[in-house]
Here is the input.
Amino acid sequence: MFGTSIPINMIKGSMILFYVDILGLDVRAYGVVMVIYAIIDAVDNPVLGHLSDRTRSRYGRRRPWLLVGAPMLAACMVAFFSAPASLEGIGLVLWFAIFAILCEAFDSMLNANYGALLPELYPRERDRAFANSLRQGFQLVALVISLAITPLLTTQVFGTEETTQGFQTTAIIYGVIALVVIAFMALSARENPRYATHERPRLLPSLWSIVRNPMFWTVGLTGACYGVAMALVLSGIQLYVRYSLGLPVANALYLQGIVILISACGLAVWTRVVARRGALWTWRLAFAILAVSFAALFFATDLVTAIAAGVLVGAGWSGMLATNDLIVARVLDADAARNGAHREGLFLSAFGFFARLNGIVTGFALTSLGVFFGYNSGDDPGADPGLAFRVYLCVYPFVLTAIGAVAARLVSVPVEPPPEAAEPVEPPPAGPANEPDVERTP
Here is the structure.
């Protein structure tokens, strides 16, 4: 998780600052690219997951894809932040589009395979919750580096507020770190060979089975409310600090740092709550706290009040990190028990369809700042860019997480399966008697 988080979070956290505010890419062009990027990514995700599920090799199903995806993502990230300063107009748009799409594609390749290992290696929810807490802790360490420290490195250590050299140098360093860590993980992981049954799942029947599963839609759409909200926060926080708080971008270090620190410290607490009350109850509570935190952040007027609101953001985010993947894993368990085949790669990639909404929504959200507030780029910020990014970072995420908190109350997920459910079995005959038990709304 440490290795996979560093590259993609630097990309998502700095792309608007780098391309729109520094290089002058128009937000309308940015919005169009992000919609196209999201559509392409939604298509390639299930294909990548399906190919992973069908892979049969002496090295396992997931390892070959991890070892190919890591160097490709690192190389594309460096290229993404190496756009020549002379580029403008359609040339800048094409450079941004090509490398944004490639970075997301290789990130999807990595995460479809990496994510599939959690339910495979840890079939019991208690063990799974502990393992997930550890990996989310390492993700937060990566976020400290890729989000909180990045503005300092790019604008003060290796570059300045108005130049791009710092981004390229930082991307090279992060790319090397990610490559080493992911390769070490891939070579050390031990897949369960019994999960790779002789029969290889077919794409279209598998997809049809997934889209007919009501839990795919209820859990996927509800989880997307959280994912899209955090995508908005990660992509806009540096400009929120610059325009809404009126501070140098490097001060994002303190705001992001406190959010991540609280999130990391809270993981142990949330994991204990999961053990006592279950993943579903805890997930609902975390959703509500996260929604309230964005309302508090809207009223922050300086770094001190923003940090105070950031404590609440960190608490809610920590709860979502501790529980969201557990809810998804319950759905994967039920699918494996019912169909007799472990197709976690395809199922997770299908869930990734909802994550791809991030690109569409962030694209439209940024474009809306031009429509409502006149912010079109760093060269044309409009009359009130401070209010524009207060809406982008606080109002939009609040609306999304409030919807998610309400929807989570209506979601039902399968109960924790017994340990033997982790082993491949023959699919049972269809019928109401074979529907999985669910944990329902009280």
